[in-house]
Design a protein that fits this description.
Blueprint (H helix, E strand, L loop, with lengths): L1 E3 L2 E6 L2 E5 L7 E18 L17 E20 L4 E21 L11 E17 L5 E8 L20
Antiparallel strand pairs: 1-4, 2-4, 3-4, 4-5, 5-6, 6-7, 7-8
Length: 167
């Protein structure tokens, strides 16, 4: 058998930081993230007689195709010292994404087609708001509310399934 699975990752992530934003000690960071992942696959496994849990010989014996994931995001995160013991952090992120997968998986009989072309695109959003209070030099408390997301990477999506953003 043989395996040839090259991948490329390109990123661009500039940041701007502003000190004393709106208040003395206030900080603001704004940024832009651009990412593109691309993976091609061409593999063939030989001499496998594996049977799955249903008694069918449909073990993935090879694959050929491409997978591409791209995204563009804007975000901002600000922190403010309200006084000597209280602080506040707020942040937002909005990310456009696009995923294309055109990978064909086949079995030992070369008849299996376990992934049809897959395309997904959309917008994922995240936010955070956190209040911090220092009770003493060694004790602090905080209250936080947030919503986050995670994109599956190309290895996560390297099977016959494609995962949407996880929140």
């Amino acid at each position: 058998g043989f395996i040839n699975n090259p991948s490329h990752t390109n990123t661009f992530s500039p940041r701007l930081k502003f000190e004393n934003f709106l208040t003395k000690g206030g900080r603001l960071i704004v940024g832009y993230d651009w990412r593109e992942y691309k993976k091609t696959t061409n593999s063939n496994k030989t001499s496998s007689n594996s049977i799955d849990s249903y008694g069918v010989n449909n073990v993935y014996e090879g694959s050929i195709g491409t997978q591409i994931f791209g995204s563009k995001a804007l975000y901002a995160r600000a922190s403010f010292d309200l006084n000597e013991i209280d602080s506040l952090v707020v942040g937002i992120r909005r990310q456009n994404y696009h995923q294309d997968s055109n990978t064909y998986y086949f079995d030992t009989t070369n008849t299996g087609n376990f992934m049809s072309p897959f395309t997904a695109s959309g917008i994922a959003s995240a936010y955070e708001i956190q209040y911090n209070r220092s009770l003493s030099d060694s004790a602090k408390i905080y209250f936080r509310d947030s919503r986050n997301f995670r994109f599956a990477n190309l290895d996560d999506n390297a099977s016959y399934l494609n995962l949407f953003p996880q929140t």
